[in-house]
């Protein structure tokens, strides 16, 4: 990533002010529910040490801290870090600092889990994505867990099918993964791949997703479908996000 590209990423989030409210939208609530489901299956018991790299305004950091995990968030966007610190001050507590996924300040083998929810879809240069993965591997203890999120290459094409689509110019600062490359990229950085999972499933395309989500019966059906197809590669393109679950060899 050039300094100019990093400046564009920071400017996008500072000017658009999109991140803090994103997870409260209809698609955001589906994302959060599914991330929590997957993390409940794979995370080590609390109080494990979690480094939330590119953690934005701290929604996931706060949720994990509430479960008893020791969480440190880093993000390159000053406004995100300010909001995350305000969230942490209100409790539950976690730390939040400015940082770069490609040059982590954490010591070697010092954390149990690294979350990469953001960096890999803001690094268009494969060398930068590899560096971020290598840094995650460096700071993980042997046997430590990586959970990384990417945006699928079909997401940008499918999003305009929603009636409420608003062009936020994300494509100018984002990177969209071919699903078939997600596992190999991490394996090339020395990780053992446990799973690649479609996160939301196809229900995110419903224009009336918010109403469906507010109905407990329909909400559970949405989640059931997402679970049913999460590991089916032919359905990966139906989800806007994929989650990679991988481990540092121990």
Question: What would you note in describing this structure?
Answer:
The protein starts with a helix and ends with a strand. The radius of gyration is 17 Å and the shape is globular. Strand 1, helix 4 and strand 2 form a beta-alpha-beta unit. 42% of the residues lie in helices and 20% in strands. With 250 residues, it is α/β, with parallel strands linked by helices. Strands 1, 2, 3, 4, 5, 6, 7 and 8 form an 8-stranded mixed β-sheet that branches. The model has no long low-confidence stretch (mean pLDDT 93). The chain has a single domain, classed as Vaccinia Virus protein VP39 (Rossmann fold), CATH 3.40.50.150. It is built from 10 helices and 8 strands. 41% of the residues are buried.
Mind sketching the topology for me?
Layout lengths: L2 H14 L2 H4 L3 H17 L6 E5 L5 H8 L3 E6 L2 H13 L4 E4 L12 E7 L8 H14 E13 L2 H4 L17 E2 L1 H10 L3 E7 L10 H6 L1 H14 L11 E7 L3
Parallel strand pairs: 1-2, 1-4, 2-3, 4-5, 5-6
Antiparallel strand pairs: 5-8, 7-8
Give descriptors for this structure:
Rossmann fold; 250 residues
Short description:
This protein is an alpha/beta fold.
Note the gap between the termini.
30 Å
Shape: globular
Multimerization state: single chain
Protein structure class = alpha/beta
How many DSSP helices? Answer: 10
Q: Could you tell me the number of beta strands? A: 8
Label the CATH architecture: 3-Layer(aba) Sandwich
What is the fold-level CATH name, i.e. the topology? Answer: Rossmann fold
Q: Write out the CATH superfamily name.
A: Vaccinia Virus protein VP39
Helix content: 40-55%
**What is Rg?**
17 Å
Q: How is the biggest beta sheet arranged? A: 8 strands, mixed
Number of domains: 1
């Amino acid at each position: 990533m050039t300094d100019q590209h990093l400046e564009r990423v920071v400017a996008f989030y500072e000017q658009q002010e999109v991140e803090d409210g994103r997870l409260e939208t209809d698609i955001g609530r589906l994302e959060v529910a599914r991330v929590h489901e997957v993390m409940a299956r794979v995370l080590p018991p609390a109080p494990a040490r979690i480094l939330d790299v590119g953690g934005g305004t701290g929604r996931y950091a706060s949720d994990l801290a509430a479960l008893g995990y020791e969480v440190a968030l880093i993000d390159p966007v000053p406004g995100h870090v300010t909001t995350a610190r305000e969230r942490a001050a209100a409790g539950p507590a976690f730390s939040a600092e400015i940082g770069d996924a490609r040059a982590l300040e954490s010591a070697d083998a010092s954390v149990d889990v690294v979350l990469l929810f953001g960096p890999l879809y803001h690094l268009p240069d494969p060398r930068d994505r590899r560096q971020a993965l290598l840094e995650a591997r460096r700071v993980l203890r042997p046997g430590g867990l990586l959970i990384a999120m990417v945006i699928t290459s079909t997401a940008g094409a499918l999003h305009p099918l929603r009636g409420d689509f608003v062009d936020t110019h994300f494509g100018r600062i984002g990177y969209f993964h071919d699903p078939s490359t997600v596992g190999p990229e991490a394996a090339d950085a020395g990780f053992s791949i446990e799973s690649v999972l479609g996160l939301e499933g196809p229900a995110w395309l419903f224009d009336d997703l918010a109403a469906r989500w507010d109905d407990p019966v329909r909400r559970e059906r949405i989640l059931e479908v997402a679970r049913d197809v999460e590991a089916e590669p032919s359905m990966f393109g139906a989800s806007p996000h994929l989650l990679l679950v991988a481990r540092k060899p121990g």
